[in-house]
Amino acid sequence: MATTLHEEFIRAVHKGDTESVSGFLTLGADVDPRDPASGLTALMIAAGRGNAAMVRLLLDAGADVYTADSRGGGTALHKAVQGGDGETVRILLDAGAFVDAVTPTTGHTPLMDALWYKWPEVVAVLLDHGAGLNLSTHYGFSMREHFAYELNVNTRGKDRLLDAERLLTSRTETDNAAAEAHKLMGAVVAGDLGAVRQQLAEGAEVDERFPLLNGFNDGHTPLLVACRDGHEEIARELIAAGADVNAVEPVFGAVPLHKAVYNGHTGITALLAITPGIDLDFQGITNGYTPLHDALWHGYEECARILIDAGARLDLAGHDGKRAADIAREDLGADHPLARALAGATPGTAVRSN
After folding, report:
1. Residue ranges per domain, the chain?
2. How far apart are the C-alpha atoms of 277 and 122, rounded to whole Å?
3. Less packed terminus of the chain by CB within 10 Å, N or C?
4. Shortest CA distance to 9 belongs to which of 58, 74, 47?
5. Contact between 92 and 62 (Cβ < 8 Å)
6. How far apart are CA 351 and CA 297, in angstroms?
7. Which of the four pLDDT bands, split at 50, 70 and 90, describes residue 176?
8. Averaged over 324-333, what is the pLDDT?
9. What's the rounded Cα separation, in Å, for the pair 118 and 164?
10. Are 93 and 66 in contact (CB under 8 A)?
């Protein structure tokens, strides 16, 4: 039986035949076929075998760095970590692979796998790219408990595990020092306006991001936290100091305005809505909701009215296809005045919010 282009392509990837793979791509081969035997994509196969040149070729041809295998749910990054080639891991991370991607079956992150397979060199690459230290598996082990278990059950290769442990210890110390050094964020979290003013006067970076510690403030700017926690005067002070009113946090992909309306902080919502340069309609990466969606979703009618009066768009849909009018009807009721106004509005025209 004659083989198909798909089969020849996968066979060439398995062989590490970069020249043939390039030729098949030129002929129109799909860059993301799955091996029927393993459920792995071509990129996963090349990554697992540490074939950095092949991985580069496939990525340049548009291979999907985010997709998961159809059995265990691992990504190409998980496979590269298993293979132990640091350069391949680095290429995938530079291409946008999620450093803390979690497999749906085990809950393993790439860092957990790097420890499991005893690759301290790969651990170093992942840590340099911000891998989280405080995540847990689906079977109840924290990363550190997972590592302690590995130390206990392995009779060979402990020297490599101990090398990795030193890297983890160093990164933990660095993270703790970075958190302690972020005095401005500490003042914001405490709601201490005087301390915020003092830190700004002493030259604190107004948009400095909090380190990624797998906590509630990960990657947040002080303004994002002030808007989330309802510290209106602090938010005002930060904005006056030049804080980025459209800063995006990396967890939910939200901006300060999302934080304010999600928690019903009307004063901060009003403050942000009139700030020059504000993006009233930013859509979060998690669900595609705008601040107006969030205000209506949580039933904060006054926040929604502020946004509508400021000119928020009504035609944008979330990932679920819902527009502001749909959320208002579901959460406020079809007979609510605001829901009726939104239902009858023509996108791009003004809406009377009261």
Report:
1. 5-177, 182-343
2. 42
3. N
4. 58
5. no
6. 18
7. very high
8. 94
9. 8
10. no
* Residue the block writes with tokens 């990164």: 171
264 residue type, one letter: G
CA-to-CA distance for 287 and 274, rounded, in angstroms? 25
Distances (CA, A) of 280 to 177, 178, 226, 302, 308: 36, 32, 18, 15, 9
- Is there a contact between 278 and 246 (Cβ–Cβ < 8 Å)? yes
What does the pLDDT look like over 94-145, one tens digit per residue? 999 999 999 999 999 999 999 999 999 999 999 999 999 999 999 999 999 9
CB-CB contact of 238 with 222 (8 Å)? yes
240 sits in the region (left: phi over 0; alpha: psi -120 to 50; else beta) called alpha
Question: Residue 147 is encoded by which pair of tokens?
Answer: 């590592």
Kindly report the number of other CB atoms within 10 A of residue 245's CB atom.
Answer: 21
Distance separating alpha carbons of residues 31 and 278, to the nearest angstrom: 40
CB-CB contact of 40 with 49 (8 Å)? no
Task: Please count the residues of the chain.
Answer: 354
Residue linked to tokens 């110390």: 173
Share of residues in the chain with pLDDT > 90 (%): 88
Could you read off the pLDDT of 209-224 as tens digits, one per residue?
A: 999 899 999 999 999 9
Number of H helices, E strands in the chain: 20, 0
- The model's pLDDT over 181-211, given as tens digits with 9 standing for 90+, comes to 999 999 999 999 999 999 999 999 999 999 9
Choice between 87 and 155, residue whose per-residue pLDDT is larger? 87
Q: Do domains 5-177 and 182-343 have the same CATH topology?
A: yes
CATH superfamily of 182-343: Ankyrin repeat-containing domain (1.25.40.20)
5-177 in CATH: which number? Answer: 1.25.40.20
**Contact (Cβ atoms closer than 8 angstroms) between residue 43 and residue 76:** yes
d(CA 62, CA 72): 23
